[in-house]
Amino acid sequence: MPHTSTSKPLNKGPFQSTKVSLTTGVFTTPGGVCTGGSSPQGSYDLIMPPRSATSGLPPHLPPLLQQTVLNQEPPSLEDPNLLVEPNHVILNHLYALSIKDNVLVLAATHRFQQKYITTLVYKPI
User: Fold this and answer.
1) Which CATH number does 63-124 carry?
2) What local confidence, expressed as pLDDT, does residue 80 receive?
3) Which residue pairs, CB below 8 angstroms and at least 24 apart, start in 81-89?
């Protein structure tokens, strides 16, 4: 015999008198108050931006991100391995230098406690 009811009571805990519609999935209480349901119309619509909004040039790089430790002269000629402390805004960014002699150079600076580590990767192309 086919099931003809469009709602089914939930018989567990505080939801004993709550019903859920099997066709729409909407929960209702004995007073008819909806406790769930669909989202507002258009809340998940994908509206394409106008072509003019995406056809321009990419945004400029902020000036602080252009000041990398790798592009500066060492402060001491006695020890060229000793570099200045990097600015906090350049940490955890990936830098790619222009390809020269078919080699791509990537660099990233990270901080661990009071130490700064700059990693360079040379990738032949």
Assistant:
1) 2.20.25.290
2) 67
3) 83/118, 85/116, 86/116, 86/118, 89/62, 89/64, 89/65
Look at the block and give the residue holding tokens 């939801």.
15
User: How is residue 76 written in tokens?
Assistant: 């001491």
The domain segmentation of the chain, as residue ranges, is 1-37, 63-124
What b/e readout covers 57-81, taking b as 16+ CB neighbours within 10 angstroms? eeeeeeeeeeebbeeeeeeeeeeee
pLDDT beneath 50: ranges in the chain: 5
Residue 53 neighbours by CB under 8 Å, 6+ apart: none
In 10 A of CB 17, how many CB atoms?
12
